[in-house]
């Protein structure tokens, strides 16, 4: 059984090993801070803790800088079955959604190996239009993905057309 040390009547409470009475804030019953509060960085320099402020990136900045990369990833996730086709509903315009509905079930991008984007590039033939291509690798096979992005009146990019290259011929 643990016993707590209690001061005898008439004597101030002291901590074991201390020489004087404890310092408490008058009226609160809480102990006053006797050590200085550390300033500056208190965690290791490579620590990435989401609960602390850090060098946060501005949301949407990568999408604005390279929209073809952002769309290539979204299209890959949709065409490989990792995300449903309706996930792209707000990011398509015109016939692109119907093209995705037709392409997604028949593509061999599903399987034990997750597909990944090997390369993605885009060009701007006219203002507010991007034509892009991506190379998708799934295992040893590769497929081409071509898509067209158009910037709307609300300054958001939307996919207007999607095409997937033919299945590579077997060796």
Automatic annotation (TrEMBL):
UniProt-listed InterPro entries: DUF6459 (IPR045596)
Comp. bias (Basic and acidic residues): 44-63
Record region (Disordered): 1-63
Pfam families: DUF6459 (PF20060)
Biased composition (Low complexity): 25-43
Record-given protein name: Uncharacterized protein
Organism in which the protein naturally occurs: Streptomyces smaragdinus
């Amino acid at each position: 059984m643990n016993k707590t040390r209690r001061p005898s009547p008439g004597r101030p409470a002291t901590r074991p090993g201390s020489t004087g009475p404890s310092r408490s804030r008058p009226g609160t019953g809480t102990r006053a801070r006797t050590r200085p509060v550390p300033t500056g960085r208190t965690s290791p320099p490579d620590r990435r803790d989401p609960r602390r402020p850090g060098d946060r990136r501005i949301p949407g900045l990568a999408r604005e800088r390279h929209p073809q990369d952002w769309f290539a990833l979204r299209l890959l996730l949709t065409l490989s079955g990792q995300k449903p086709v309706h996930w792209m509903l707000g990011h398509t315009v015109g016939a692109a959604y119907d093209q995705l509905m037709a392409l997604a079930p028949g593509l061999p991008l599903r399987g034990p190996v997750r597909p990944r984007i090997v390369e993605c590039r885009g060009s701007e033939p006219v203002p507010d239009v991007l034509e892009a291509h991506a190379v998708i690798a799934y295992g040893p096979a590769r497929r081409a993905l071509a898509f067209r992005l158009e910037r709307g009146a609300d300054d958001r990019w939307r996919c207007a057309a999607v095409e997937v290259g033919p299945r590579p011929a077997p060796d």
